[in-house]
Amino acid sequence: MQRIRRLSLVMLASCTAAWINGPQPPQAATGKPNVILILADDLGYGDLGCYGQQLIQTPNLDRMATEGMRFTQFYAGSTVCAPSRSVLMTGKHMGHTRVRGNASRISGIQTLRKGDRTLAHVFKDAGYATALFGKWGLGEIGSEGHPKAMGFDEFFGYLNQRHAHNYYPSFLIRNGTKYPLRNVAEVEDEEGAGWARQKVDYSHDVIVEKALEWVELNRVKPFFLYLAPTLPHANNEATRGVGNGQEVPDYGVYRDKSWPAPDKGQAAMISRLDRDLGRLLGRLKEYGLDDNTLVLFSSDNGPHHEGNNTPNLFRPGGPLRGMKRSLYEGGIRVPFVARWPGRIKKGKSSNHAGYFGDLFGTVCELTGQKQPAGLDSISFLAELRGTAKQAKHDFLYWEFYEQGGRQAVRFGNHKAIREPMFTGKISLYDLSKDIGETRDIAAKHPDLVAKATRIMDKAHINDPAWVVQGQAADARDGRTLTRQVSGEEKDRTIRAK
Fold first, then answer.
1. CA 431 to chain CA mean position, Å
2. What number of other Cβ atoms are within 10 A of residue 54's Cβ?
3. What does the alpha-carbon distance between residue 101 and residue 497 come to, in Å, rounded to a whole number?
4. On the chain, which terminus has fewer CB atoms closer than 10 Å, C or N?
5. CA separation for the pair 128, 152 (Å, rounded)
6. Is 11 exposed, middle or buried (0-12, 13-18, 19+ CB in 10 A)?
């Protein structure tokens, strides 16, 4: 009888400890690391302190870089939103991926399709809980490309990129239904784009809170969180309507600066993003998940000036030439920071040349799965761990379908740009000597120009859904390159986001 009482007391103590401390992380048993991928929107290579920014405060991201690895030659999938995210999700570069531009919701081409395999599918197959909080842009409600059809257990945020401009919309989307917010619209169309008269619920804050709740609920099993905030993207409609597209609840430490309001907003948006990354990292420590979670941070493309902000003030591209929509380095080279305590060496800077498509191969290796055939993806897990020689790409490739179209390829230290797309003149730069791409050396290196031409021609696989704005038919292979109108417009002007 006494033995039974002692056993009962032990069991009660055990249950009480579990109740007090909460569910314990199972990673020791499963050996599966959690993965959090945070993708900012229109954040430039030089927008963070750890990449040289001097005016905008980003202490948490700077600390993340000192506690992990900072990549100096990492690239987005494209120079605008949707195609960059398509490359990220599918592991295929711009010459092969499904979504190659920003297009009309009605056209139906800006969506992944049944049979497309995403990062989320890889994690699902490995037994992970998966969620996306923030901006998707690759499939609407009822489409084959909806996040729930693309491997995500849970979705909350924006499906439509025009909706994602609006930081005070009347609704967000939770899985397949509208989630009402308390904002009252001044102007808002059927897609949710516009701006508010009464501003109550700041969408970014709501999305982050939902993401933190999801992490708390799923911390007892391996999880993949894709957190895709819209900061610091401009509300383009508000820019045109009221002159300031950098919507934020307050300017914080920048309120007394003598800067114009859009610049205060730009800085405050970036610092708010940094604040919430710090909150997320804090939760990982609180839950005992810090050492078993790989956290990755990047941006979908280069910086913007669509909110009437002043690029010359913050120099968001750092030493790089060009911005969003450009295929110069400033349009596609992005900050990329990786943190994994005990697995990634602290304070390391990597010059490995990788890009968004490489996340697919990395996740396959991390979860012990075979990489599917036909991808343009090389795992960079060896670079993260520093335990083996890192494989390298023969080349990295990009396309852009607006403004007459353009292509770019990086091979070794050399970077070539052809515009207009398919038929234009090629410029050539040596990035090891000219990171700002100020000296075109094409005339001195016809052999390298010829090599770049061969790569560009081979890398592009024609997709009839995607045509180049403003070009006529290409007689070389019968491609029809006609004007395609982006879905962001009600008028005749093509916009990228």
1. 24
2. 9
3. 10
4. N
5. 10
6. exposed
Beta carbons within 8 Å of 240's beta carbon, 6+ residues apart: none
* Angle at 462 (CA atoms; ends 461, 465), nearest 5 degrees: 135
DSSP string, 370-381: PPPTT------H
- Exposure of 440 by Cβ count < 10 A (0-12 exposed, 13-18 middle, 19+ buried)? middle
Which pLDDT tens digit goes with each residue over 269-326?
A: 999 999 999 999 999 999 999 999 999 999 999 999 999 999 999 999 999 999 999 9
Phi, then psi, of 332 in degrees rounded to 5: -130, -25
Half-sphere exposure of 12 (CA within 13 A, CB side): 6
Residue from 393, 409, 401 nearest 457 by CA = 409
Please tell me the distance from the alpha carbon of residue 253 to that of residue 269, in angstroms, as a whole number: 11
Q: Which residues of 259-286 are buried (b: 16+ CB within 10 A; e: fewer)?
A: bbebbbbbbbbbbbbbebbbebbebbee
Can you give the pTM of this predicted structure? 0.91
Vertex 292 angle, CA 118 and 359, to 5°? 25
Give the C-alpha separation, 152 to 139, whole Å. 13
Q: pLDDT, tens digit, for every residue of 63-118?
A: 999 999 999 999 999 999 999 999 999 999 999 999 999 998 888 899 999 999 99
Choose among 103, 370, 451, 65: nearest CA to 74: 65
Q: Which of 332, 351, 348 is nearest to 340 (CA)?
A: 348
Rounded-to-integer distance, Cα 131 and Cα 156, Å: 8
Structure tokens at 454: 């061969």
Number of H helices, E strands in the chain: 13, 18
Q: Which domains does the chain have, with CATH numbers?
A: 29-385 (3.40.720.10)
> Do residues 386 and 403 lie in contact, with contact meaning Cβ atoms separated by under 8 Å?
no
Can you give the three-state secondary structure of 399-422, one letter per residue? Answer: EECCCCCEEEEEECCEEEEEECCC
